[in-house]
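subagent[fold] <- orchestrator: predict structure for attached chain, return tokens only, no commentary.
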Amino acid sequence: MRALARPPVALRSVDIARCVQIARRRKLDMVSALRAATESPQLPPEAREHIHTFLRLYRDAAGSLDSARPDLFVHRLVDRLGLRRQQVFSAQADVVERLVNLARLGELASSYAQRAPHATPRDFARYAAAVADAGLREEDGVGPPPPAGAVQLMALDAAAGRDLDWVFVLGLTAARMPGPRLRAGEMVPDALLKETLGPDDRAAHVASMRRLLHVAMTRAAHGLVLAYPALSSAGVAQPPSPFAEEARAALGAGWEVLEEELFGPEEALHATFQALRDELLSDVARVGKGLGELRFDTDLDVTHAVTRYLELVKLAALIERPEGQSVADALGPVNQRLSTELSPLQREVLATSPLDALLLDAERDDRARAAARAARTEPSLEAFLPRRGDGLALSASDIETYRSCPLRYKFARVLRIPQEPTLNQRFGILVHQVLERYHQATVESLDEMLNLLDWGWRRGGFGDSDEERQLRVKADAALRRYVQRVTEEPVQPVWFERAFSFRMGAHTLRGRVDRVDRLADGGYELIDYKTGRPRSAAALREDVQLSLYAVGAREAWQLDATQQAYLYVLDDEKVRVPSSEIDAGWIADTVDEVAGAILAQDFEPTPSYTVCSMCDYRIACPAAER
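subagent[fold] -> orchestrator:
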């Protein structure tokens, strides 16, 4: 997904959504679905051309996985995908950080190729995956200090204590600065704190972000530039940060409009020149050594070395071509002059080189990006939004997903990218199903519960790994405690897996409550089962799910629930959220805010370790490159 959405493929979101639809309906893998999409009437001709570009890149990369050198493969792949040709003032706040990471990836591939000369790109991919899991050694992870006069790239919180000549603060939109308040993964109990912390609310978050920006702005000795993208990646207008507006108003200045500028088509020429030069230098010693050996393929090695040198001359000629002349116009005369003094074998090797196609593709991609930048005709994803009448159909899970990361919502609910459930997700589904069937049984007994667990375990395809055996032991113990809890509690379970649906403004809210108990005093308690780690009542103060369930029970069932609780089955712990904490006005505002952002197609990612480490779409997400 990441490669499809980016240059040089740059497939529009609406066309990606159509391709995902084809994959889901025909039960194909994504590459096969893309091949099928090229023959589908659902996609316009320009989208099919973009897909053909991707398939050509895919074939070239797949063919080199077991033959090319890892460092050259990485350099050429980065170049072919156009990852370095990023706009300076971009809606993505971390573009410059990605460019640094790309350079580090190239260095990592080069050092790996030196340590393992016979390794393939496939071997390096396994090594890179292991590095991603384990991290670099300290000496590998810390680069040399920047030279004098270099541009330093850093997050806002890294600017403290620095003295800089110029400071450029990018990405200053209202959605990012101050942006939404990020919630902690788990609250630390007050008893464990040495000092009293300030309030953890919206006002405190705004004040914290204001201080952060102030620190960055005051690092500049000679000049300061504040910048923001006027349009999101979906073409939706986005206002500047109120903090930036305050600074502009204080100066009585106006915003200067700058159009996007790419690094230019010459970047591909220079990058390829450097890669070929490095390849030629590394091959000289090998070819020279072969001249003194009795081998049948020595002449062929010399021919390839001469051809590599001529390609280097070709690149130098293209770099120095007259201003205004395209690569396509200059390439023909250069090739003709080079081929006049070659042997037939050298001429054949030069003619079959993929270099010309690579350079022409890069130039076409630059023209396509320029045309797209001028047109800005990204179609709307309106047809793929979960519409219900004039509004949206939303659940508590939808709202929580969007609040945690809008791009994750886009992947899951708009593009509907299929995902394979993890072992823990399958285990959670099993526990829910066992509890539901237990309460539907004629006789509720411990034997019945354990029989349902055994049946569900076999039907769910669980194996005999160490982790699965541990989960089975946990489930057995937890369900035994559950039976005991239900027997001893002075409550009467009355409904299980009861659905609700109601209107809130223009939007339809829906959900399903795992269990509803009638209490001894005549009131009701809404219970939702959880198989994760328990969260404290303080950490659930802004929880959407139980608050929405309480409003749903009142609106759909005319039932005023007096209590709401999460039952953490594995820990046999019930955490209640009192009704006094339920704010119907806050729920309505949250629904309007989330629905409005979805309708505006605002799907900018909000990466954080807590969210990204558990996200099913990390491999497709651009924010995962951080």
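orchestrator: received. Logging for downstream: DSSP finds 23 helices and nine strands in the chain. The two ends are 17 Å apart (CA to CA).
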